[in-house]
Amino acid sequence: MKIIFDRPLFGASTKTLNLEKDGEKIGKMDRWFHPPHERPATSPIYDVNIKVATRIDTYEISQQSFTLGKGHHWKLEQNGVEVGQMTGSKGMKEKHIIELHSENFPHILIQSTWKGSGIISINDKEIGATKATGFLINTKYITDTEAITNLIDPSLFAGITYTFWSSHTLR
Predict the structure, then answer these.
(1) What is the reported pLDDT for 171?
(2) Contact, 127 vs 111, CB < 8 A?
(3) Within a 10 A sphere around the Cβ of 38, how many other Cβ atoms?
(4) Largest Cα–Cα distance in the chain?
(5) What is the full DSSP assignment across 105-121?
(6) What is the CA 15 to chain-centroid distance, rounded?
(7) Are 101 and 88 in contact (CB under 8 A)?
(8) What is the dihedral angle through the alpha carbons of 99, 97, 117, 148, rounded to the nearest 10 degrees?
(9) Which residues are bridge partners to 97 per DSSP?
(10) pLDDT at position 109
């Protein structure tokens, strides 16, 4: 399964991104920011929140906290109901990691490599990778995995991947 979406030229962009799975549009995604007095961190660059909309469901990944020592912590909601938590790696010397913890979805881990891509595992099994392509023009995020549609909505999976890339650029 291949999921592709545009990579914003500026990391803090709120531009709507269209999601494609194997060449077919499956949804859209937006990054949003907390108002300054509600931010979980002092700088907006550390504020990573993603909203994903499909024909049926809406998913929201909203940041709850961030510190360099403790990493990121997000809440995952499906149609306004909390269905999981996500965490990011702690400390500046660790490889960047995003993990999904949920009773409704499998355990997902995306870990950066030293080559600028990410290795994706579901339930401790490596199933694919994600990478950023292009420079200034034709910039995209590409995620290529085994078929996982029976495990998780591909649009939500794209949102998790976007969270990985949006929080990864901070390191």
Answers:
(1) 40
(2) no
(3) 8
(4) 42
(5) S--EEEEE-TTSEEEEE
(6) 15
(7) no
(8) -10
(9) 111
(10) 97
Task: Judge whether 66 and 41 are in contact, CB under 8 Å.
Answer: yes
Rounded distance, CA 67 to CA 88, Å? Answer: 10
Distance CA 50, CA 58 (A): 11
Residues 27 and 113: their CA atoms lie apart, in Å, by 28
- One-character DSSP codes across 13-68: ----EEEEETTEEEEEEEEE---GGG-SSSSGGG--EEEEE-SS-EEEEEEEEEET
- One-letter identity of residue 121: S
Separation between Cα atoms, residue 76 and residue 53, nearest integer Å: 13
Q: What is the pLDDT, as a whole number, of residue 170?
A: 47
pLDDT recorded at residue 166 = 87
140-159 per-residue burial string, b: 16 or more CB within 10 A, e: under 16: ebbbebeebeeebbbbbbbb
Q: What is the mean pLDDT of each run of 10 residues along the chain (171 residues)?
A: 74 80 90 84 79 96 87 95 93 86 96 89 95 80 87 94 81 40
